[in-house]
Write a structure and sequence with these properties.
Chain A: Pfam families: P-II. The complex is a heterodimer of chains A (120) and B (584). With 120 residues, chain A is of the alpha+beta class. Helices cover 28% and strands 31% of the residues of chain A. Chain B is mainly α and 584 residues long. The chains are: A alpha+beta (120), B mainly alpha (584).
């Protein structure tokens, strides 16, 4: 018997960079909007902070980078919710972008796999 | 015939919720390039924000900082006030000045911590990183010594110790009186030398991966030996409490992060950064070595002057301290504490050829630290210390007759003493469980022990330890028991457990003692102890902090051993062995 890997298509990756300590609120909003999970890693970043002069103290140079894979159906809604939750329309609060993902793979419960493949 | 129009629900939702407009990033960069060219500036342009945007940026920043300090101070202040009003039926004297003092403490602590992060921490990290690249081990160790000494002078809680000197009666404890008044500078210097030596040993520990067990055992045995030597002499005995309390005072919000930053930087550039235990141990040594140094200073003082001379020494100093009551004194002391440290750090940075970026922010940070420390000192004397002193004065009224206190004794002797001890236990528990440093440590310990020693478990163990320690301390003051009755068996037991425990738990257990005594707890407990001691007629009110530091060592080491034993009994693979021992 050959081994099958269920490969997911129609996946988009939302990456959102916010100040250290603020990722949780954004992830929470994404999960509520239907995202399945999130990966967060720490980073350091430059940008507006260096152009602010003394106000730079209010913007943390340490960042958290949130990566969330969502389906094409979810993309717009999750993107909006994350943008609003992160208050990204405020200067210095962060940056987010979407990249198409060619394929992805993870554990998919067998019964769901059976059902979806049967439908096709 | 009706025509059917189909609209996707998702389109409808999108239109009504958030409007999206596409904008080419190329247009944006083109515009930016044009503007730069017009301004004639080759690099980034300074961004100017309007008022609402400034508010938007600053409000979460300031809100978070205020909230952090508020959560540390408010519960304690409320608890003290409620206890005083409900259990002891006493009104708070000068409530508005105490309230103003608390606000000043809160704002001061907030500014100081932020100033420390912006103005002093960058020095510590870059120096630690660059120094070993250009200079040998000797230079690194000399810098560590100087830095350890420098930060002690900047430590806000040291001020609380100096303030305590005014409350000691010269006739009953001449050497203690002299030490806190005439010799106060020598006292701080002794503490500073202790912290400096701790920084050196800690640095060597990082670099050579030494075990903490040996230095801890040597320091503890030395301090206990000197203690036993001193309790024989009635004139020297009161110094023991002060000396052991000094250990708790030193490991405050300046010393720990700065020395740690230096140590981690050095360890990192020496290629030893991978050990998960990096950063532990220094706190322990920085609380044990000052004890040793102060005890030695006491012996020196006793060798140099007789008790009568010591009394005169203290009095002469008391008369000359002319700045002690003006608000300017706090500002001067803040300047004296922070500026030399900054100058020293700047010189070392030059020496280490470390480039410090962002000069305006750095200067702003130093200014914040100065303002914060001055405010904190002012707030301390009017707010926390006043409240702690008042409570300390009033709580003994629960079991003893106090002149000027209506209805005292309020309860029977036994019940009254129980009320007083209970008060201290709850205070210790509440003050510790809210300590932010402990929370951070808990997370580290959980990772180190692969989850076997959870974060909550550590926090509860340490809080219970501090609570027991404070309770015992109050009992000691009430019954006028000598401090060494508690110190000798306590630290003896701690040493035995140290040799039975794994390296991880030795580090965690001993460090948890230093971590818990923060800038809010120390002045409060010191003031309370002194007020308490004064009210029950004890020679001195010291020793509370010493016992509050001993408690968590015993509770954490004990719990660590218990967990390991349980794992061994249930034949589950032991998760608590540390990486070094498991690897060898």
């Amino acid at each position: 018997m050959t081994l099958t890997i269920p490969v997911l298509t129609d996946v988009h990756l939302i990456t959102c960079i916010v100040q250290r300590g603020r990722a949780d609120a954004v992830v929470q909003a994404a999960i509520e909007a239907g995202a399945e999970g999130a990966t967060i890693h720490f980073a350091r970043g430059t940008g507006l902070r260096e152009k602010l002069g003394l106000l730079a103290v209010a913007v943390n140079a340490e960042k958290e980078v949130i990566s969330i894979a969502v389906s094409r159906d979810q993309l717009n809604y999750v993107f909006e919710r994350m943008f609003l939750a992160g208050k990204l329309d405020t200067p210095g609060m962060g940056f987010m972008y979407v990249t198409p993902v060619e394929r992805a793979a993870t554990h998919i419960p067998p019964e769901i796999l059976e059902k979806l493949i049967g439908e096709r | 015939m009706a025509e059917e129009i189909r609209i996707k629900y998702s389109d409808y939702r999108r239109e009504t919720r958030v409007r999206k407009r596409s904008l080419s990033f190329s247009k944006l960069t083109r515009l930016a390039a044009k503007r730069r060219a017009e301004a004639g500036a080759p690099r980034w342009r300074r961004v100017h924000l309007n008022a609402p945007q400034v508010v938007n940026i600053l409000s979460p920043y300031i809100g978070g900082k205020v909230g952090e300090q508020f959560r540390a101070i408010a519960p304690l202040a409320v608890y003290l006030a409620v206890f005083q009003l409900l259990v002891l039926h006493q009104h708070i004297e000068q409530p508005w000045s105490v309230f103003g003092g608390l606000i000043a403490t809160l704002v001061g602590l907030m500014l100081f911590m932020e100033g420390l992060r912006l103005g002093l921490m960058p020095f510590g990290e870059t120096i630690g990183h660059y120094l070993p690249r250009h200079h040998g081990l000797t230079a690194v160790l000399v810098v560590a010594l100087m830095l350890g000494m420098g930060v002690t002078f900047a430590e806000p809680a040291i001020g609380a110790l100096r303030a305590a000197g005014a409350l000691v009666q010269p006739q009953r404890a001449p050497y203690l009186y002299a030490m806190l008044n005439g010799w106060a500078h020598w006292l701080v210097l002794a503490v500073a030398i202790g912290v400096g030596l701790a920084a050196i040993i800690g640095m060597l520990m990082f670099l050579r991966s030494w075990s903490l067990k040996i230095p801890v055992t040597l320091c503890t045995l030395g301090a206990l030996g000197l203690t036993v030597l001193m309790v024989d002499d009635p004139a020297l005995a009161p110094l023991v409490g002060l000396a052991w309390d000094c250990g708790g005072v030193t490991t405050g919000p300046v010393t720990v992060p700065l020395v740690l930053a230096l140590g981690i930087g050095v360890a990192g550039s020496a290629g030893k950064g991978e050990s998960s235990l990096v950063g532990f141990g220094i706190v322990t040594l920085a609380s044990l070595l000052p004890v040793l140094a102060v005890l030695a200073l006491g012996l020196l003082l006793a060798a140099l002057v007789t008790p009568d001379q010591a009394m005169a020494l203290g009095r002469a100093a008391a008369e000359t301290s002319w700045t002690s009551k003006t608000p300017a004194a706090e500002i001067i002391s803040a300047l004296r504490a922070i500026l030399p440290l900054v100058v020293f750090l700047a010189l070392v940075a030059r020496f280490a050829r470390a480039a410090i970026a962002d000069r305006p922010v750095l200067i702003f940070g130093i200014a914040l630290a100065l303002a914060g420390m001055a405010l904190f000192n002012i707030g301390l004397s009017y707010g926390l210390a006043a409240l702690g002193g008042q409570t300390g004065n009033v709580v003994p009224g629960a079991f003893a007759f106090l002149p000027g206190l209506n209805g005292s004794p309020m309860y029977d002797y036994g019940i009254g003493v129980a009320v007083a001890v209970l008060f201290a236990v709850v205070l210790g528990f509440g003050a510790t469980i809210a300590e932010p440093a402990l929370n951070a440590m808990g997370a580290t310990v959980e990772t180190l022990s692969n989850g076997a020693f959870g974060k909550r478990m550590l926090i509860w163990a340490v809080s219970a330890g501090v609570a027991t320690g404070l309770g015992l301390g109050v009992l000691k003051l009430v019954l006028a028991l000598p401090l060494w009755w508690f110190l000798l068996p306590g630290y003896g037991l701690a040493l035995v457990m140290t040799w039975l425990s794994t390296e991880t738990f030795v580090n965690v257990g001993w460090d948890s003692a230093g971590v818990t005594t923060g800038p809010v707890t120390v002045p409060l407990v010191l003031a309370m102890g002194l007020g308490f001691g004064g009210a029950v007629g004890a020679v001195d009110g010291f020793g509370l902090l010493a016992l509050a530091s001993l408690g968590p060592i015993l509770s954490v080491l004990g719990l660590g051993l218990f967990i390991r034993l349980r794992h061994r009994l249930s034949a589950i693979p032991i998760l608590l062995t540390d990486p070094q021992e498991a690897g060898s």
